[in-house]
Amino acid sequence: MYSDKITGANIKNARLYRNYSQDYLAGKLNISQNAYSKLELGYIRVKLETLLVIAEVLEVPLSNLIEPPAIHPDVASISKIDIVPKILEIICSSTGMGFAAVARVTEDKWIACSVCDKIGFGLEAGSELNLVTTICNEIRQSSEAVIIDDVSQDKFYAQHPTPALYGFQSYISVPILRQDGSFFGTLCAIDPKPAKVNNPETIELFTSFAELISFHLGGIEKDASKLKIA
Questions:
Q1: For 73-229, which CATH superfamily applies?
Q2: How far apart are CA 210 and CA 78, in angstroms?
Q3: 4-66 fold
Q4: pLDDT tens digits, residue range 97-142?
Q5: pTM of the model
Q6: Spatial contact of 170 and 150, defined as CB atoms under 8 Å apart
Q7: How far apart are CA 156 and CA 140, in angstroms?
Q8: CA pair distance 32, 52, nearest whole angstrom
Q9: What is the mean pLDDT of the chain?
């Protein structure tokens, strides 16, 4: 027997990874968008034959939809830093932006490690996005922050596909570097409305928080390394 809540969450994460809309999946299942939304929320039981169709559309094994997702080690590490949720709350309140996150960014993955979502963006800890659709992928390559007050007025990002894909107008993301200087991920925030974030105070706030996360992460990873040796 599989859990409706877990199955719904797994379907949602797989759909977001493929950049499919709820309307698209609803069409494939011949149901309304409202009914499909309830499916992802775990409000209705999904029949096995429906799960098989969803698995085929999303190109994932059936087991990926019904089994509890394994906790990614980096998500687990960030969850041990008690101050991270408060950091994300402060970011949202100080910038007026509705979504903030710590993300692990590798050569092939974007994984949300901790999230503050006040706009219903739909991600939670452990959720993944298709890496190549994110600006964080560019930050991984450059290790430079990206800050956008208003996408529509930005000479470069006004035509960039990512803001249109994810529906944001303001964006700020700074790299989180490990203590040895290697790239871990990003501390980022977005909002569907413009926001004044490209200023020294906000940049310093994000940079300081990224360094604080890096410091605590270093201690956690050092302790984990000692346990492996022992």
A1: GAF domain (3.30.450.40)
A2: 12
A3: 434 Repressor (Amino-terminal Domain) (1.10.260)
A4: 999 999 999 998 899 999 999 998 988 898 889 899 999 999 999 9
A5: 0.75
A6: yes
A7: 18
A8: 18
A9: 91
